[in-house]
């Protein structure tokens, strides 16, 4: 399985069976992403919430490739209303897809779409494929239930926002790594816009000072999990 980082909160998972899963594919309007929507394909698109920097190019990609969007109920319905296939879920619920398991978790944030449709509650997501669990926190402040998420799931990779202003900043994200107890933490949602400038190196150093591992993915970099 492979994990690719486009920048911001946009990732691509490619399974050993060749299924492609995008998370929050904000590409065309994202100046930091070296990959644009015309360059990607998707079997599934997982959305954490409806904000434009997460919904991104979902409709364009999903219509072109007949992708299935996976999102909380209100956001999934919004996708269906825009002629996109979707699987409706909600926070606390998990579902076994052909590629693996998806479970939505809480996130403290908003979820209004760019054209002012309420996207339901914002979410984080646990994706488990071939025994490897990835936690994508979505946009959120820190919350104590991250401890429970860490206790109940053996998280291999935690993708955590560090950009501050709209989400956790570096110090809160470092604290979150203590709660989550992930094997490896990866910073996201930083340096896309001036207001979310943050240092991934500071995050990495602080996580390592706690005896845990963090890696910084370059924009466009793909790693083997
Ligand atoms: Ni947001
Ligand atoms: Mn965001």
What does it look like?
This protein is of the alpha/beta class. It has a single domain, classed as Ribonuclease Z/Hydroxyacylglutathione hydrolase-like (Metallo-beta-lactamase, Chain A, 4-Layer Sandwich), CATH 3.60.15. It has 6 helices and 14 strands. The strands form 2 sheets. It has a 7-stranded mixed beta sheet with strand order 6-5-4-3-2-1-14, with helices on one face. The protein has a 7-stranded mixed beta sheet with strand order 7-8-9-10-11-12-13, covered by helices on one side. Helix 5 links the parallel strand 11 and strand 12. The longest helix is centred in the last third of the chain and has 11 residues. The radius of gyration is 16 Å and the shape is globular. The chain starts with a strand and ends with a strand. The mean pLDDT is 98. It binds nickel (II) ion and manganese (II) ion. Manganese (II) ion (MN) binds next to helix 1.
List the SSEs and their pairings.
Layout (H helix, E strand, L loop, with lengths): L1 E6 L2 E5 L5 E4 L20 E3 L5 H4 L2 H8 L2 E5 H9 L3 E5 L4 E3 L4 E6 L16 E7 L2 E5 L9 H7 L4 E5 L8 H11 L3 E5 L11 H10 L3 E2 L7 E3 L1
Parallel strand pairs: 3-4, 4-5, 5-6, 10-11, 11-12, 12-13
Antiparallel strand pairs: 1-2, 1-14, 2-3, 7-8, 8-9, 9-10
The protein binds nickel (II) ion and manganese (II) ion.
CATH C-level class is Alpha Beta
User: What ligands does this structure carry?
Assistant: nickel (II) ion, manganese (II) ion
Mean pLDDT across every amino acid position: 98
Low confidence ranges: none
> Approximately how much beta-strand content do the residues carry?
25-35%
**Shape assignment:** globular
Sheet with the most strands, sense and barrel status:
7 strands, mixed
The CATH topology assignment is: Metallo-beta-lactamase, Chain A
Rounded to the nearest angstrom, the radius of gyration is 16 Å
- Can you tell me the number of structural domains? 1
Number of strand elements: 14
- In spatial order, strands of the major sheet run 6-5-4-3-2-1-14
* SSE class: alpha/beta
CATH superfamily: Ribonuclease Z/Hydroxyacylglutathione hydrolase-like
CATH architecture: 4-Layer Sandwich
| Topology as a string of helices (H) and strands (E) | EEEEHHEHEEEEEHEHEHEE
- Please estimate the helix content: 10-25%
